[in-house]
Design brief:
Order of helices and strands: HEEEEEEEEEEE
Helix content: 10-25%
Number of helices: 1
Number of domains: 2
CATH architecture of the largest domain: 3-layer Sandwich
CATH topology of the largest domain: Rieske Iron-sulfur Protein
Strand order of the largest sheet: 2-3-4-9
Structural class: alpha+beta
Strand content: 25-35%
CATH class of the largest domain: Mainly Beta
Largest sheet: 4 strands, antiparallel
Distance between the termini: 75 Å
Shape: elongated
Number of strands: 11
Radius of gyration: 28 Å
Length: 144
């Protein structure tokens, strides 16, 4: 081979730049999911509110809906008194059901019982059900 040392250095520099560029692209591809995992989730503000017409929730009844991607429930224990709670049991994540006669929530998986306020009455759940802010706006109930 009759390559001069200058031509070899040019080839090495060129290959180094190409391989470095490929390395940067590959590192970017593999680090993007990690970046998305570690970045904070936008909880949003008013856009994250759920609007429910008042007539959907009977007095003494419960209305199940989805709030920020999770099951939730809206109660009207007495006329005009609304309460919103998570419908996910704090024990193992089962969906609770409302027992109208007893005015309490029952977890079908392991028998956990919660009051209408979300407090643990019996069973294995370690924490009460999380509550959500409720406000009234005309004929609609705003949750969140």
């Amino acid at each position: 081979m009759n390559d001069s040392p200058d031509k070899l250095n040019e080839r090495r520099t060129f290959l180094g730049i190409i391989l470095g560029g490929i390395g940067v692209v590959v590192a970017g591809i593999f680090s993007w999911p990690l970046f998305r995992f570690l970045s904070p989730v936008d909880k949003g503000g008013k856009e994250q509110q759920v609007r429910i017409p008042r007539e959907k929730v009977a007095v003494g009844g419960a209305y199940f809906f989805s709030y920020q991607g999770h099951p939730a429930v809206l109660l009207q224990l007495s006329a005009g008194e609304f309460r919103a709670l998570s419908a996910v049991c704090t024990h193992l994540g089962c969906i609770v059901r409302w027992v109208t006669d007893a005015e309490e929530f029952l977890c079908p998986c392991h028998g956990g019982r919660f009051s209408a306020a979300g407090q643990v009455l019996a069973g294995p759940p370690p924490r009460p059900l999380p509550t959500y802010a409720v406000s009234l706006e005309g004929d609609e109930i705003l949750i969140g």
